[in-house]
Amino acid sequence: TLQVTVEGKISQLNPAARKLLDTASGAMSVFSLMPDIRPEEVEECVNSGGSLTNETEIEGRVFQFTLLGMPKLGWAHVYGFDVSLFREIESRLKAAKVKAEVTTRMKSEFLANMSHEIRTPMNGVMGMTTLLLETGLNKEQKDYAELIQQSAESLLELINEILDLSKIEAGKMTLDAAPFNLISTAEQTVRLLQSRINTKNLQFSTDIAPRLPKSFIGDPSRTRQILFNLLGNAIKFTEKGSVQLRIGFAHPPKDQNLASGQDIRILIEVQDTGIGIAEDQLAKIFENFVQADSSATRQFGGTGLGLAISRQLVELMGGSIQAQSKLTEGTTFSVEIPLKVATH
Ligand code: ADP
To answer: Given the CA of residue 161, which atom of ligand 1 is nearest to it?
Structure first.
């Protein structure tokens, strides 16, 4: 610590400050310790009681000086601290952060590339198996070929999910903004799942808000993917009862007639009467590779990636996703997404 006059001259100092001054320049002025400040600033500080802070490097060490004006006494107090260690830790942390970010991005890019490379031969395996199944195979050969086909399908599903996730994590997922018919997108998705609904003998119903516009501007295929995941899960985790799809407004619109170009928030709900999710698991199911019950994987298959991807997609769209559930009674997933009304 030291004391300085209005002119910046040092009037009193302790031994540590003396030592520092000797190494700095030896001049008995505050400007040799705080070279970045101007004499007017010191004067102003002393008169007003303000403060000035400055970092100076002296012989490889970083010192932080704070000058505090004492208007009643007519001089200023200067405190100095050796902050070299803080600065070094800070710069090491910064370097580590940059390195970690680069590594993460490289990993995601690698995964995205790999998944892409794997998809091409996988499509070959699937296409050829389909052709093979159309040739005259005996029962045993047909069973084997069908098993190849099923395995290839689940592998491809997994690869596609990893590809999506790595794309999202590498910040490379871009969404379409095209006009699309939300209701027919939902109907197409249901059609893809119809055979699973029939096999399980589930009651399925769709409820669409009466005044809901048909066309929106958005990303139809990613919307379909979210719907497919939620409906697929609802069917997968429900043995008896029903699965319901509701599409409506998150907030009832004030206007009777919605103008094209208007932004509205759509609420999509998928409700089932299935096995449900325990309360402590509910928040975690949107994380990567998380499945509510590890025995479920063996029983139901799946990767634990579907909901993670859906959440990321919904958030990219500027929306949100939530789940409500009661064990053994059923689950409801609610998705809110902002969409622009389109003309047709
Ligand atoms: P996957 O279905 O491939 O396991 P998801 O990310 O889609 O992965 O789902 C994660 C987990 O959330 C599932 O494994 C399951 O435990 C739970 N879950 C999702 N949807 C439902 C549902 N409708 N009913 C009960 N559990 C569900």
So the answer is: 3
Tens of pLDDT, residue by residue over 161-211, are 888 888 888 788 899 999 999 999 999 999 999 999 999 999 999 999 988
Interatomic CA distance for residues 271 and 288, integer angstroms: 22
Asked if 8 and 2 count as a contact pair (C-beta separation under 8 A), the reply is no
CB atoms within 10 A of CB 33: 24
107 CA distance to ligand 1 centroid (A)?
26
| Residue carrying the six token digits 């995941």 | 229
Q: Write down the pTM of the prediction.
A: 0.69
Cα separation, 264 vs 215, whole angstroms: 12
Q: What is the pLDDT of residues 104-121, one digit of tens each?
A: 888 877 877 887 788 888
The two three-digit tokens of residue 1, written as one number: 């610590």
d(CA 274, ligand 1 centre) in Å? 11
Q: Is the CB of 310 under 6 A from ligand 1?
A: no
Q: Rounded to whole angstroms, how far apart are CA atoms 291 and 305?
A: 9
